[in-house]
Amino acid sequence: MPTKHLLRIENLHHSFENEEVLKGISFSLDKGETKVIVGPSGTGKSTVLNNIIRLVPPTRGKIYLEDTEITSAKNINEIRQQIGFVFQDFGLFNHLTAKGNVMIGLTKVKKMDKNEAEELALFELDRVGLKDYANSYPSQLSGGQKQRVGIARALAMQPKLILFDEPTSALDPELTGEVLKVMRNLAEEGMTMLVVTHEMGFARSVADELIFMEGGNIVEQGDPEKLFTDPDHKRTKEFLFQLTNLYGEGEK
Amino acid sequence: MNNLELIKSALPYLLEGTLVTIQLTFWSLLIGIVVGLPIAFAQVYGNKILQATVAVYERLARSIPLLVMLLLLNYGLPMLGLRIPIFRAAVIGIGLRSAAYQSQIYRGAIQSVGGSQMKAARSLGMSKMKAFFYIIAPQAIRIAIPPVANESAIVLKDTSLAFTIGVVELLRQGEYFIATSNEPMVIYLTIAAIYFILTTIVNGGLSLFEKKYQIPGIGIEGGHSDAY
């Protein structure tokens, strides 16, 4: 079935051992949209992202990237090039400089010319404000800088969308701001993003749509402002109220 | 004959033995790498059956004393109709034992690089093979250098056990010379000095290599290959 959605997820199920962590998730993402998934820990939010890029293959259900069904696609390495992934623990390659981290996917996967790759790498590092750190190794960078390199690495591959798996959860509170700012800019520039986060301020002000998940199901999804102020479900209200109390409303 | 002259006259024989010791060390370490690496891969990436099989090998090779192993190869196998030349028997014995130890070094190095590096590489669209060569291996090699230097020194010293099955290496050359000169103290000390020089060269070489390719944040900070 052809679709105009960039990403469409249909009835996604996932089980680890005997435990069903996703019990039928369906939603879609259009080009240029930012959607934020929130929910308690162990709800399967990260599993959704890992299922999409098939680092963890889904047990059941279908995922479409534009018109391609990617859950059973053979050429997964090609599909992964089109989907950026930003990890909670950064996942930077420790033996490469910031520039090397951004370049390696370009030269080794996309077979780009080395000079061209370097130019693009420096451009993307500049975009996340780290041009001066191009030659630093991950161990020489702060957490916030590492995560921005992670974002630059994803961007350089020129993906159709980027998945963010709790990108600020491993950071000290004073470092989350610089990462969120980069993400906010990306959203404004029209990058398509699917973000799992506890940052309520970001969710409320940047997301086009908020998805509240609990117990492997989507409880409620819709306009973030509505979910924050007048949700249909009691659980949504309880959870968002609790998180907002915990993390503050952030920059509204 | 004073000691210096004694050493001088012994040196040609001892150096001849040293050459054999170096050859024993080289081939044993090579077997250790060639057998040890696949064992490490089997342990990290293999299925349960493969893992269990190599675990048995590793257990055996690490439990049997090298001397017993060499005696088995040299005096045991001929009973089964398999006669291996002594140099080869020594290399096989020392090499197979080193393979078990080296496999542990490589396994540990690969595993300490961590699954998240592999995951990140795969997320960029790298195949498992590419991820291993471009991401895992460059880090694992750096982590493995100090323990490999250590293992090399151990193998070098253990080649002296080849003496017991008749390989004319450094120690046996010394024995021959002692038999005619009756100067065990001076000759054994000279032999010890030669082993000392050889292990220092091996460790120094790997330590240089380690420093040349040092990257901040990889390997043990401040650690070096001389720590044996």
TrEMBL record, chain A:
Protein name: Amino acid ABC transporter ATP-binding protein, PAAT family
Span of domain ABC transporter: 7-240
Source species of the chain: Halanaerobium kushneri
Similarity-based family: Belongs to the ABC transporter superfamily.
Annotated Gene3D superfamilies: P-loop containing nucleotide triphosphate hydrolases (3.40.50.300)
PANTHER family per UniProt: AMINO ACID IMPORT ATP-BINDING PROTEIN, GLUTAMATE_ASPARTATE IMPORT ATP-BINDING PROTEIN GLTL
Cellular component, GO, one term: plasma membrane
Principal subcellular localization: membrane
Compartments in which it is found: Cell membrane
SMART domains, per the entry: AAA (SM00382)
SUPFAM superfamilies: P-loop containing nucleoside triphosphate hydrolases
Automatic annotation (TrEMBL), chain B:
Segments traversing the membrane: 20-42, 63-80, 185-209
Subcellular location: Cell membrane
Record Pfam families: BPD_transp_1
GO MF: transmembrane transporter activity
InterPro entries: AA_ABC_transptr_permease_3TM, ArtM/GltK/GlnP/TcyL/YhdX-like, MetI-like, MetI-like_sf
Bilayer topology term: Multi-pass membrane protein
UniProtKB keywords: Amino-acid transport, Cell membrane, Membrane, Transmembrane, Transmembrane helix, Transport
ATP-binding as UniProt keyword: no
Single GO biological process annotation from the record: amino acid transport
Any one of the GO CC terms: ATP-binding cassette (ABC) transporter complex
Residue ranges constituting the ABC transmembrane type-1 domain according to the UniProt record: 18-206
Matching PANTHER family: L-CYSTINE TRANSPORT SYSTEM PERMEASE PROTEIN TCYL (PTHR30614:SF0), MEMBRANE COMPONENT OF AMINO ACID ABC TRANSPORTER (PTHR30614)
Family listed: Belongs to the binding-protein-dependent transport system permease family.
Protein name, UniProt field: Amino acid ABC transporter membrane protein 1, PAAT family
Organism: Halanaerobium kushneri
